[in-house]
Amino acid sequence: MKKILLASCLMATTMVFAQWGGGWGGPQSSGSVPNSDKTADVNYAGDGKAYHTLDIYIPKEAKESYPVVIHTYGSAWSFNNMKGSADLSTICAAYAKAGYAVVTPNHRSASDAIYPAQLHDIKAVVRFVRGNAAKYKFDTNFVAVSGFSSGGHLSSLTATTCGLKEGKSGSVTVDLVGDLGEFTSYSSCVDAAVLWSPPTDIYTMNPISMGGSGTMEGKFIGVEREGNKDKWMVASSPYYASDDDPPIIMFHGTSDNIVNIEQSQELYDSLKNHNVVTEFVKVSGGTHGGDKMNATENLNKAVEFLDKAREAKAAAVVVPPDTSKQDTSVVDTSKTDTSAVDTSKNDSIPPDTQSIAIPTLRLPTLSPVSYSVYSLDGTLVSRSSVLDKSRLKAGVYYVVSKSATGERKMFRIVKD
Prior knowledge:
single chain, 416 residues, Rossmann fold
């Protein structure tokens, strides 16, 4: 009898969400991603489970490699095989058209496992992308996450928990990384996030009822909200916001009656308080997905945000000098490969042509002639022979040190 009642409640809830045109996450387009080559049903965990498969869309325009966007479907955490309806002809199509490889993963539903299993799945996807860069022509210098509704929630957590092994609130501790897949030695951090109608703070959002059988959020967390604040807090991305979070943009409809717009506002405010590069697009009259949310203007804005984040990261990467020519200048990609510019006379570092990893390093041991400090968007903040953090505003910065011998090193600092 209990099973019959539960099935009836789930069917009723499904009918409610069906009013928005597809799935519990709201309207999401299926079909295909135009002008791309698809590789389907790749298992990213090596366990043969359908809920651990993903599809890959590579733009038809031939390039040596492609920056990556991982886009996750919305389902109120309730479906484990919706990658074929992950906004393919809208959001994913816009990414692919702009030259991004698009990865659409499945993940475990709340019926398969409770949180943080779903976060472990998405982080395993990030590591899979890095571990398979050569095979699929992924440019892992830039890996972003994107997601709609509950997919946006998982993407927001992926972005804000970089570098954290555990999430703690009160007496509750959860593993934020997991050990899924064969690429556990790779980073699960990302370089940007695009969130579409996302729940962010599970504890404060308007609950989605399951018709008398609790809430979607309660099923996802494993317990209902009352008396379990700590268990809900460790699944909330504003709780993890910090100075070194990647750039994040949010799109939310003012008429969204599934996920209240205050959810995006809360994350936006938390990120701004930590000086994170972030934008919040309030879509007038937009509901939970649909044509207004997926308007060309918004799709273009999302792509522009990703492009800017990618350019800012590239601008902060130092190209190693060509020591065979005793030339310690940075390559100017607007000219030939052998020309160079003197960064002491420029306001920003030109984009790299030989990208190297951006490490979070301690202060260099060289005796520098100067330190050049850049904001995350590549703007020169200061240049001095002494690195004085007290003169900086709170935030995250890239610093380039130039030694007396002309050798350069780049590292990142955080000013509290």
